[in-house]
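Hi F.,

I've been meaning to write this up properly since the lab meeting, where we talked about keeping a consistent format for the predictions we share between groups. The idea is simple: the sequence comes first, exactly as it goes in, then the structure tokens exactly as they come out, then a line or two of notes. No screenshots and no reformatting. I'm using this chain as the first example so we have something concrete to point to.
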Amino acid sequence: MPPLISPEGAGNAPELTVSDLAGALKRTIEDAFGHVRLRGEISGYRGPHSSGHVYFSLKDANAKIDAVIWKGVFGRLRFRPEEGLEVIATGKVTTFPGKSTYQIVIDHLEPAGVGALMALLEERRRKLAAEGLFDPARKQLIPYLPRVIGVITSPTGAVIRDILHRLSDRFPRSVLVWPVRVQGETSAAEVAAAIAGFNALPPDGPVPRPDVLIVARGGGSLEDLWSFNEEIVVRAAAASAIPLISAVGHETDTTLIDFAADRRAPTPTAAAEMAVPVRADLIAGVRTFGARSTGAMARMLDQRRAALRSAARALPDGEDLLASQRQRVDLAGVRLAAAARAGIDRRRGVLAGLARRLQGQTPEARLARFGERIAGLAARLGAAPALMQRQRRQALETLGQRHLRALVHRLSLERTESARRRDRLGTLAARLQRAGRDRFQRDRQRLATLAALINSLGYRQVLARGFALVRDQAGQPVRASAAVSPGMALTIELADGAFAARAGEGDPAAADARPRAAPPRTTKPKDGRGGQGDLF
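Output, unedited:
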């Protein structure tokens, strides 16, 4: 494509219209970026437009680009975009000449993870929820008809006008506006200070204390509404002693103050509707209730009058009432005479029955019954010895048979047990004999080993190699020359015997040493060992 401006100067440059320049830029960008894949976070998403197209932005930490999805492509997407999600968008970059901006037309969209702001928002929401700031038990009831309403919002936006207009239409109330910034670095601190300031107003001070608070802001992107996600604002809303209504953003926008507030309104206008009832409806309702009460009272009086008249007409004549009672008295008199006769007859029958029972209890009758019982007992007594003898004989035979069977069974058991014990004794005797032989062999081998050890370790073996054992007068071995004094009597033992000697003062050859035969010691030490310590 030829350059649009001549490098030699501007005088020969062709004149272009804005449309020509915009078209050239559009063709250049579309040729260079006909197919791109972008990774970014969705921002400003509000769902499909009335035309069916979708408009939003893709952003990262340093840049932002507008995005559009046409209606036909949006219907074919498997994944629906959401605010704050990190996505990978595939499409082409183009320009929009109407605004001199560039944008990406998306053909395919897939999720790439939750965006940084949404991740931070979710982490903060979990933290504050764990502290109990969003607990439903903390929520306060909104007063039905507050005297004063406190509104925390920007004084220059359309939000405050919508709230005041809606309040004046429904039920005019006193409104206190605390102006704050609803966007920017200082917005969160101003909103928190406004909530605390309204709560700090004394109930009977010169400035009336609101009965309900409304924190309001218009719609916007996640970044625009981020002030109402700050921890300082959420804590101030949760600590408010005055019931608080949150009306931040539109119906699809959700911020953390919505969870901490006592009531959430989808829009600022809806917050005004929640704060006060409709005055005209209340007046109409009161009139309706008054009319219904008056009509109900009149209908009740009419019903009572009609009931009284009906009751008066239904009352019978006095003579008619007495006539019925007189007839009942006459009938009762007739029935009383018949009942008296029947009662006399019934009591006469009872007396006759008692008389018959008394006849059976006379002394003669009782003696006759006793005589019959005595005769029966005498007959049973005469047959009793023979019966008892038969029963005892049968019992003795049964016991004898049982005893005989028990003896036979016992003998069988004892015979079996004796055989079993005999076998066990035989087995134990054989084992004992084997164990004795084995123990004797082990003791013999051990004794032989000990005898060989004594012979090898005894001091006589050392004497046989040419050494001598010197003892003092007490029979103790002399281990050092310093222990020998001149003239000291000594005993010297060799391999074939011992002889007495006396220590001299100078040359050992000059000492008077007369050998003397002594029988060799063959006595073994009492402990059976060779006396290793007696060698020297």
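Notes:
Confidence is low (pLDDT under 50) at residues 509-536.
The radius of gyration is 66 Å.

If this format works for you, I'll send the rest the same way.

G.
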